[in-house]
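User: Can you write out an input/output pair for a complex, sequences first and structure second?

Assistant: Here is one pair. Inputs:
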Amino acid sequence: MKSKVPLLGIITNYIYRRKGKQLRPLLVFLTAGMTGSINPSTYIAAGMIELLHTATLIHDDVVDEAYERRGSYSINALWRSKVAVLVGDFLLSKGLLLAIESEEYELLRNMSEAVREMSEGELIQIERSRRIDTDEPTYFDIIRKKTAALISSCTVNGAISAGAPAEDISRVKEIGLNLGMSFQIKDDLFDYQSKGILGKPIGNDVKEKKLTLPLIHALEQTNGTTRHHILKQVRRSRNNADALREVIDFVHASGGIEYAHRKMMEYKENAIDTLKSFPDNEYKKSLLQLADYIVERNH
Amino acid sequence: MKSKVPLLGIITNYIYRRKGKQLRPLLVFLTAGMTGSINPSTYIAAGMIELLHTATLIHDDVVDEAYERRGSYSINALWRSKVAVLVGDFLLSKGLLLAIESEEYELLRNMSEAVREMSEGELIQIERSRRIDTDEPTYFDIIRKKTAALISSCTVNGAISAGAPAEDISRVKEIGLNLGMSFQIKDDLFDYQSKGILGKPIGNDVKEKKLTLPLIHALEQTNGTTRHHILKQVRRSRNNADALREVIDFVHASGGIEYAHRKMMEYKENAIDTLKSFPDNEYKKSLLQLADYIVERNH
């Protein structure tokens, strides 16, 4: 992340000291270790994804006018949002150059396709939230694109970097997709049952009219009159705490939490089943633990 | 720019119908024609740069909260800024995929390096504007990075796509850099002498404490007391129309406009001199005309 521009040095240093879970590079390293051996290409793949992911988070915070990130101030809270966007662009181009300069074109292609799918997934979600009509198949399509595609490009790039055979690559792709799906369902559950000091405030998705699995399922369990009433409360929830409370209580009472939890566990179990088809080693063991962490984490 | 997401189709269609001067792809095609022949790689290079450039403009408008672009509404004026950022990301990844899928890695490397330089240049400018101490060498360094690097990657990629020899590539790089410098000085002159219906409002750079060549030169012509007073007026100009007027009048009275105009013409002449070293053909003739257009345009 080095640069001769002093301001960039200060900001990238700030970012570095507040790095997150680093789940994505971790997946790259562990998959490479499980399917072959970790080598310089693995470092390129892991670095590229973390630079890209960090760039995305910085841009997200600008657009959402979010002033907190990872329990600390966001870049746009401390510097002007113009600066935050430019730092994001800088990290993004650094990530690209990392792959281009080491001629890792296959890694780059996978990552760029995941970025395209990500932006498409987010746009479908926004389009649907305007009409408040997301159904279950659409929800799964959205989260596959916006979250699972990038996580699956981590496991795929890990295996590619390790020189794994095509058959292994298609299996780790499945693992990444399933882990990504359970990761996003877990994130969406937080909106209905936040806990701990790092927990996000509850109900943000509802206020943005973003229908996620717990609410979608709850709505599918009910009759036309109740459905109509709850959707009206969703629309009012941004400025009305009672309406928001009613929607959240409805989701809990109609089994939305249990259903989403069950689906999340199904995806996790799919990932674990495919993981089990690989020969035992320390990396596989860590990946199995990581799958549990994804569904059990508190933030 | 095609996508299966309906909202994306509507927005990319809107962008397509309001395309701008398309100066960058034009430079790619003309340079390819002058140094060899236009071929499928040239189309990739031209498409990639225009997708990238459009993505940058959309992101710029979000950050600047600009509601007009090319005499029409900006994307973030019509859709939510979250949507505008995502459409920018989509176009950016499409541009990358265009190069990756056709294995045009050399074109991609040039472009990514230009993007990195661009973000660095903009960040230096922001850093300097906070201290209001940009001098002439720093100014030229900033505009070389933030504007000329990308324009020079157009001429370089045009020549690379045409299979031009290394010696030609280094000459078209010089041409691109010099055209880019004169292009940016022209843009900076608009801030002091806007005209026509498409003209941007005057004095925006001053209000943002962005010192450009006309003001930098004017300040260098004066004594400490006047300099101190003018810098005070620059700081006040955002909320004080009289202070702004005084700064602009000072620039005009101290020969700042003439000096910047002279420098712009020097860069243009450098570009033309190098252009003349190429054998005559219709593409070279068009590039000579384009050089004149860059310094004579009214928007």
